[in-house]
Fold:
Amino acid sequence: MIPPARFAASLRLIGPLLIVALGGCASTSSTVPAPTAPAAPSSAFDVVGPAPAPADTDLVAIMLSVASNPEITFRPWDPSDTRRVRLARGGSGGLVDEAGWTETWSILGNGEGGGGDGGNVQSEDHFRLDTAGIVLLENRDAGERVVTVFVPAMAVAPRGLSPGESRTQELQMSVHPAAKPGETKAKGKAEHTVTFVGFESVRILEQAEPIVAAHVRARLSADLGAAKVRNTTDQWFAPGVGLVAQRRSEQTSVLGVALRSIDEAWVIDEPARGSADP
Structure:
């Protein structure tokens, strides 16, 4: 989810970008491999068109949907790209409990023998379900060894959000060394908007039949002193499955100079249960 949001997932590069702004040099590391997304959806993922809403349109419930296996592997939209990442989800109770839960992204093998079965953990997001909905408390970036904290917690799935509606939230972001959480590397203001675009019929991989998925768009605009970050993430969640596809674009500038532009897209690398009928 990312933050989505990852959405989270959309926030996995915030820590490194803040370090760039402070250090004055570009970091070439990223928390997940970033394949270039095709200009138009490839055969790996395709939006067929709008779909009738299912009986239950509760976005929080849909985003909390999980397959029987809480570990899901994703591949790039580009079918020729062999890289894979894994999303693992769990809490002290196994999935979701009152203390919240984590969603961990790991890099798997890239078709050249790298990664291994266990994967290389790159990012961990801490979520909680409260009166506001699903909220993101913090992101831990293993590669950059930083923790990004959101105050108030970022609402990635606001309660009561209906198809076609948007919610905007003002918040503070701060970045801390993982080894010294009491220290602050950078902080600043951010604006986060979540839009429930609606339900769409989507085709995943080589499945013959499309399925219905909720399309959610998140826009994050962060002013972190010298660094300015603009991030847009589109995610598709299938009832009973959870996250099935994601596309993220991000532009970063430091002191008014464009530093980085990213466009990446991922789709579930396994059959997704469901149908195009509501």
